[in-house]
Amino acid sequence: MKFSKALAAISCAALCSRAVAMAMDMDMDMDMEDAARSGSGSAAAAATTSDLSQITPVPHEPKHLHGQPILDTQLTPAERLYWESYNTTTFFTTSLGNRRAFWYHCFSLAATTLVAYPASLVLRSVRSNWYLPALCVHVALVVSSLIALSVFASSFPESWYPGSVYPKLSLAVLIATLVHFGAAVITQAARWVAGDDELDAYFGTDFIPLHDFDAGAGEPAPIGSPAIGGAEGAASVASPTTATATLFDAAAKPHDADDPKGKYRDDSNSFELGDGFPRDFEQRTEDSAGMALRHKSRTSTRRDHFLGKVFAQPLVKAAADKFGRVFAVVYSALNYPLLLLLAADCVTGFAVGNLLGKGLRVFNLLAHWIKGGVFVVLGVVSLARYCGFGVARGWAWNKSIVFKNQIESGSWVGRVMPHGTVTMEGIESALIFLYGSTNVFLEHLSNQDGKWAAKDLQHVSIAFMYIGCGLCGLIAEHKLSDWRFNHVLTHTHISPEVIHAGSPGYSPNPFPAFTIFWTGILMSQHAQASATSTTIHVQWGYLLSYGSFFRLITFVLLMLVPNKNLNPSRPFTELVTSFCLLCGGLIFMESTDQVVEALEFRGFTSMFTFNLSVGFTALFMAWEMMLFLWLDWLKERRNKL
């Protein structure tokens, strides 16, 4: 009992002493905090008093810093570990290898894609004799660019991108360029030397064979006159492939007043805007090969003599005589696909040069860049249609008429051509269906575990939307074929018996615009791993939606005010649509994971890339419109000759 009382007393004393010690510690802490507060307050007051004269008064302190690197922000340990190991070294930033060869390759490939080859296409459209020299410049740039790439690759000590597709794609560009150039030379030789009227279907009517001229006269004899061989000349007039057959034959003469200068007439089967006017043969000489060449200046004289020597080569003449039509088909089939191939090579080189898409990330890169590239191409074509591209087929929002005497009896063209012709809306619907069919599993391939996730199902549903909308668009085109034909008959004074097919230049088919609209809306709601990526998706999603909205307004305008002639309609809404498609497709390509990471690492915000995309798109549109302005100037200049 005494022991327990003593133990209790000791415990109480210990507890009391512990409580006293804790109280003393708390008092000391409070005293120290008071002292610190008073000290900091006095220090702050002193600092405020001393620095107040040096402070510039502002209404608002900046709360958002542009260009703040991500490592300077608050990160979780896992995020900091990732970003501290982030490597910014690429082929563009390293000092390894032959840098002169590398940069020459980059600039020469970009120059021929943006300048040299588009300029050659313009010269081809006006049937200029400067076309082949311009094409030689393009070939020289491609060949020298790939030689420089080979020099750089041999001087680079490491393999940073194993299994890259860029060397193979560059080789494909080289082969396609050489084949296209060879086909162009042979086909041009067939026109100049053989004078094959059927080849003029690919080049227009500016060339008239030598045997169609009166050698003693300074002017070409009329086709079908006795100077051309009587019956043969008359037969050439009756033939739908003759060099003088135009879209407006005798049955279409009432419409000559719509286009008095023939600026937009085109009797060719190519995509070019043909003039249908003969060359000026007032000043002609004949070289040793017996070819009539036109000379207007010393430069053109040298050019034509050089071309004459090339075309007079036995190998060229033999190939032109035996395989002229085959080379013409190959040449015509490669013209615009080669431009797309060059653009794809540039984009792929940019991705490989920045080490984008390595490993499984290639699928995310392909999904964004292929889709974004499709919208960019669609924007380029839309702007080209506004400027007059495809006017002969009614693709420039203009009326198009195909007469029965233009179609050979029993030809497959006449059998497959719909009553309402082939419209751009039909082509877009077919491409939408094809794209949706081939893009079902692309995003899913980037999953490391191979399992289907909710994100994969979202992308698959979009692919299903493309398949369904593409099919609906094709069916709608079939249903609207008679409407397009009857629409042309209603607004023309030509007898229906002489018309094989016709179109007002558009089809009120909403499914292509519908597809673009919902692609933009769905992806604008697609949450991403970072706020920057989400905002970028919203930007291009809204742009695509706006573009589809203005495309529908185009249909309404053309239905309210039908096109009364064959000239391009040029609805102003298509300029807005083109901008939205171009800018939206570009930002779409920027929304891939690795591009967003590169922006975030350097502190670039979504508004930064948005501003750059808008500015670049405006400059690109100006460049494309300048090319078509140059084309129109060349055509008017040739019309005055």
Automatic annotation (TrEMBL):
<feature type="transmembrane region" description="Helical">
    <location>
        <begin position="372"/>
        <end position="396"/>
    </location>
</feature>
<keyword id="KW-0812">Transmembrane</keyword>
<keyword id="KW-1133">Transmembrane helix</keyword>
<dbReference type="Pfam" id="PF10355">
    <property type="entry name" value="Ytp1"/>
</dbReference>
<feature type="domain" description="DUF2427">
    <location>
        <begin position="85"/>
        <end position="189"/>
    </location>
</feature>
<feature type="transmembrane region" description="Helical">
    <location>
        <begin position="102"/>
        <end position="123"/>
    </location>
</feature>
<dbReference type="InterPro" id="IPR018827">
    <property type="entry name" value="YTP1_C"/>
</dbReference>
<protein>
    <submittedName>
        <fullName>LAFE_0C01772g1_1</fullName>
    </submittedName>
</protein>
<feature type="transmembrane region" description="Helical">
    <location>
        <begin position="540"/>
        <end position="560"/>
    </location>
</feature>
<feature type="transmembrane region" description="Helical">
    <location>
        <begin position="130"/>
        <end position="153"/>
    </location>
</feature>
<feature type="signal peptide">
    <location>
        <begin position="1"/>
        <end position="23"/>
    </location>
</feature>
<dbReference type="Pfam" id="PF10348">
    <property type="entry name" value="DUF2427"/>
</dbReference>
<feature type="transmembrane region" description="Helical">
    <location>
        <begin position="165"/>
        <end position="186"/>
    </location>
</feature>
<feature type="transmembrane region" description="Helical">
    <location>
        <begin position="326"/>
        <end position="352"/>
    </location>
</feature>
<feature type="transmembrane region" description="Helical">
    <location>
        <begin position="609"/>
        <end position="631"/>
    </location>
</feature>
<feature type="domain" description="Protein YTP1-like C-terminal">
    <location>
        <begin position="345"/>
        <end position="630"/>
    </location>
</feature>
<keyword id="KW-0472">Membrane</keyword>
<keyword id="KW-0732">Signal</keyword>
<dbReference type="InterPro" id="IPR018825">
    <property type="entry name" value="DUF2427"/>
</dbReference>
